[in-house]
Q: What sequence folds into this?
């Protein structure tokens, strides 16, 4: 007999109050535990042994402290403190094994800081510090600056945005040591400003006496340098447009309650067709309320409070606790608070059209949904490996008591602030991460194809215009070519300087051919602008369906793009032809020959569909939050804030991108699949490759075949490896080799949320290593942290293997890390070595032709294994009206508990039943439950399982 107790129906109006009462979205410190005296004493002892005085090591501030749920290790992150004020960048840490015993301490404290630090009395007020920071950044001076959170300066206070920042402006007093001369210590104000254009999120330190800049760091990690550098290589190649393997999908093809995406582990549209992913399968241990929530149109910045207080069953957006995905074509940083996202409607049908080879604007909604899906998958996968609430992951609401909420990822598709780029902003825990995905220029130029006369037949590359209608969306444009005659300019009026044309009737309905320049030479009183845009506008006014500007010098072979500022009102597309091609067309038309042809555009590529790049960007948030603790977002930069030293972060991000897109591995039944020898690439889709097999945007492919990727540690001394991504590529290569050696030994698990399988085990070690390594690590620091992570998690079972792989790539026992400048590793003094530690026998480097596939076992207890099981609970009908049936064929024993919770956690129904009743189907009366989305949770002795259901009346 099933017995259920009903609570009062949940009313919509009470949801916001419930959220506030439960601390939903609060950014207050949510972790009450503190490191033990034993732990802090161990840190002090080790610090003194490393050469610091007891005064320098005494009473550091605790920035973060948490326990790893999987390994049991405790991580305490500290900052040097003098005169009650923290020393900026002076970060330390102490870590324990699973028993709580301290086993590792590291620090980057400033020697003699206690003796050298000036008095902690600033001359500048906090308000003056904000003004000084705005001057340093070249921003307008703040207006109406008001203190909104008062506190001791050394603990941090907060002002409103002053009209110059997207968020409130935190200000905090620090000591700052000159990185090149640490005996020079300044009292400084730290000011954090998120620029309104969304391009930079600055952390600035100004001298508390003079206002002079001491340090500047951007939380936004941008890819532009090497992405553009390597992309240029691809643009010089002749490309063939990718085969249109993707069929255009009409709206509504997918089942309701689903997302139509390129799912894990598909790398891009080059990998195959989209798949409908049921939203019910997105409820798991790491996202217990699922990924998607309802959203009513609103203009108030309390985005998630309004989500939960104003449910609207007819407006369902790709936004939730982990990520809000939307388009930012307009480059408006506040669009995330509006409904600038595709609406899945009451049936939660997130299937939007996608057509391969068309302009990216036509695929915008599909790209937003794909971006939403991948950010959520990355959230769940990384959480299953240790990047959880305690360690600073990205969630608006934290479901436990650790870490800070209020910081879901804002994922912006087709961001209008740039091209050929992508970035991720990672401020400290409790502040939103932001991913900006840009369009990438198609390396294939637009072209003009002449079909008649036969003497001109062929294709001519052309330059595009940054104004007017996009030829990709409008084209192809076909018709007769007509030379314009404005009646006044040279070359028979071909310059199109005035309107109406003398031959307006001939131009009407055809493609206008116009010569560049020539308008400045007109007689006084009849001169008009020679701009490209002006010429195209006049062609439009004379009825042309398109304009082609030809170079005025008939021997020129350069292809130019066209820009303009006077572009308002231009609705037709236009192209530019080089002089030699334009001269041939002009000659034919002048002789009376009819010239017929078409103009075709080349669609740009939307990085929201390149899942390797999406994973790369999210990876910056992972490595930044884990290194030095979630409250420190400046432990992967140089001491002066130069992001050129963000080298290892780029390496981790490439590794994450490769890991998340590992598919079709070679097995006994699939011997042609991929292994560690298979070359892998980053960014093949966005640079217009025909397959996801490269070459992409890196120097060498990722492979453990050293004939294809010969990178060793010593290559960093080469001048070619002085750029952040090139250096990171070497680190990623080492990790990639190790990943495959783990796979060869422990098998490959296609369930990326699982804990068994070599791929899952190694990703966990990589994340654990980030937690353990020193602030601003070098390659050898990162190596040692992975070794120590294996010691804590596995008793050092993989130590020989880890040493063997690093040694093979030149990071062996006798290798020397670069000389530190201001506490940061450099390339100076790097020495590679290929030896093993004394007494450690090298592990055999495996290279099998096939891989063993392992599966996530059912009925096990670790949370990592339960994460994939949400879909085995059936709840129907969905949406439910007066009655809901919950059923599962779980192989469990004893009673089960069934609970329905609303989206703020309030219990609407709860009850117990036998496992047999669950298998036959438990019927629940939903007539008295308020309409809305609910989590169905089933607790059994085999684990906890969830799904999501909508109640409608």
A:
């Amino acid at each position: 007999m099933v017995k259920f107790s009903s609570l009062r129906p949940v009313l919509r109006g009470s949801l916001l109050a419930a959220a506030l009462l439960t601390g939903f979205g609060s950014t207050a410190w949510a972790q009450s535990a503190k490191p033990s005296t034993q732990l802090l004493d161990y840190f002090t002892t080790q610090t003194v042994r490393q050469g610091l005085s007891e005064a320098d090591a005494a009473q550091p501030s605790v920035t973060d402290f948490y326990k790893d749920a999987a390994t049991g290790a405790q991580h305490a992150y500290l900052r040097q403190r003098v005169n009650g004020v923290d020393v900026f960048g002076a970060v330390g840490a102490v870590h324990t094994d699973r028993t709580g015993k301290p086993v590792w301490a590291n620090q980057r404290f400033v020697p003699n800081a206690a003796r050298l630090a000036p008095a902690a009395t600033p001359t500048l007020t906090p308000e003056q510090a904000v003004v000084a920071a705005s001057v340093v950044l070249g921003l307008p001076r703040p207006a109406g600056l008001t203190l909104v959170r008062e506190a001791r300066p050394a603990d941090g206070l907060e002002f409103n945005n002053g009209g110059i920042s997207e968020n409130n402006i935190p200000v905090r007093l620090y000591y700052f040591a000159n990185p090149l001369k640490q005996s020079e210590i300044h009292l400084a104000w730290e000011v954090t400003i998120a620029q309104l254009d969304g391009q930079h999120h600055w952390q600035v330190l100004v001298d508390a006496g003079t206002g002079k800049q001491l340090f500047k760091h951007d939380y936004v990690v941008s890819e532009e340098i090497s992405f553009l550098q390597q992309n240029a290589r691809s643009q010089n190649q002749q490309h063939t447009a990718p085969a249109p393997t993707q069929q255009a999908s009409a709206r509504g093809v997918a089942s309701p309650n689903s997302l139509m995406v390129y799912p894990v582990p598909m790398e891009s549209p080059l990998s195959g067709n989209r798949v409908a992913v049921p939203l019910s399968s997105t409820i798991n241990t790491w996202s217990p309320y699922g990924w998607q929530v309802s959203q009513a149109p609103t203009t108030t910045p309390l985005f998630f409070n309004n989500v939960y207080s104003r449910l609207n069953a007819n407006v369902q957006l790709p936004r939730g606790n982990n990520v809000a995905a939307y388009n930012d074509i307009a480059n408006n940083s506040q669009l995330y608070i509006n409904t600038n996202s595709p609406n899945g409607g009451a049936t939660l049908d997130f299937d939007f059209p996608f057509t391969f080879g068309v302009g990216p604007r036509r695929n915008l909604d599909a790209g937003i949904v794909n971006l939403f899906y991948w950010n959520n998958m990355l959230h769940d996968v990384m959480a299953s490996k240790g990047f959880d609430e305690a360690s600073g992951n990205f969630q608006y609401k934290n479901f436990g008591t650790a870490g800070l909420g209020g910081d879901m990822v804002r994922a912006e598709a087709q961001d209008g602030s740039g091209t050929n780029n992508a970035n991720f902003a990672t401020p400290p825990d409790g502040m939103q991460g932001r991913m900006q995905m840009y369009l990438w220029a198609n390396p294939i130029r637009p072209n003009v194809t002449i079909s008649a006369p036969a003497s001109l037949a062929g294709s001519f590359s052309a330059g595009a215009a940054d104004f007017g209608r996009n030829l990709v969306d409008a084209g192809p444009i076909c018709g007769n070519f007509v030379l314009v005659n404005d009646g006044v300019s040279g070359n028979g009026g071909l310059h199109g300087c005035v309107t109406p044309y003398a031959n307006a009737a001939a131009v009407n309905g055809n493609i206008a051919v116009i010569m560049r320049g020539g308008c400045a030479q007109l007689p006084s009183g009849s001169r008009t602008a020679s701009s490209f845009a002006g010429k195209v506008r006049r062609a439009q006014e004379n009825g042309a369906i398109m304009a082609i500007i030809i170079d005025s010098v008939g021997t020129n072979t350069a292809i130019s793009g066209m820009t303009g500022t006077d572009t308002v009102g231009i609705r037709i597309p236009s192209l530019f032809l080089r002089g030699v091609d334009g001269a041939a067309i002009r000659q034919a038309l002048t002789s009376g020959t009819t010239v017929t042809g078409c103009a075709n555009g080349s669609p740009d590529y939307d990085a929201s569909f390149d899942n390797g790049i999406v994973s790369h960007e999210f990876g910056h948030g992972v490595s930044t939050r884990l290194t030095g603790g979630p409250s420190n977002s400046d432990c992967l930069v140089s001491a002066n804030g130069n992001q050129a030293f963000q080298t290892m972060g780029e390496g981790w991000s490439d590794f994450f991108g490769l890991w998340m897109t590992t598919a079709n591995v070679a097995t006994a039944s699939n011997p042609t699949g991929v292994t560690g020898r298979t070359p892998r690439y980053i960014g093949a889709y966005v640079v217009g490759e025909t397959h996801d097999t490269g070459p992409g945007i890196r120097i060498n492919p990722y492979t453990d075949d050293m004939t294809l990727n010969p990178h060793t540690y010593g290559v960093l001394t080469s001048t070619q490896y002085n750029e952040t991504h090139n250096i990171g590529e070497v680190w990623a290569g080492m990790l990639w080799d190790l990943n495959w050696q783990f796979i060869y030994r422990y098998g490959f698990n296609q369930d990326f949320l699982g804990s068994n399988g070599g791929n899952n085990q190694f990703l966990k070690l990589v994340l654990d290593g980030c937690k353990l390594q020193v602030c601003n690590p070098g390659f050898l620091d990162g190596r040692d942290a992975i070794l120590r992570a294996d010691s804590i998690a596995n008793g050092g079972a993989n130590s020989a293997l880890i040493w063997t792989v690093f040694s093979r790539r030149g990071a062996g026992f006798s290798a020397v890390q670069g000389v530190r400048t201001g506490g940061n590793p450099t390339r100076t003094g790097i020495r590679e070595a290929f030896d093993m530690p004394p007494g450690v026998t090298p592990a055999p480097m495996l290279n099998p032709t096939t891989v063993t596939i392992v599966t996530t076992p059912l009925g096990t207890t670790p949370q990592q294994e339960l994460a994939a099981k949400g879909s085995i609970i059936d709840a129907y009908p969905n949406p439910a009206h007066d009655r809901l049936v919950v059923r599962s064929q779980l192989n469990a024993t004893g009673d089960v508990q069934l609970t329905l919770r609303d989206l703020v956690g309030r219990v609407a129904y709860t009850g117990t039943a036998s496992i047999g009743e669950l298998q036959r189907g438990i019927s629940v009366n939903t007539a008295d439950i308020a309409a809305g989305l609910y989590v169905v949770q089933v607790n059994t002795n085999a684990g906890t399982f969830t799904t999501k259901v909508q109640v409608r009346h």
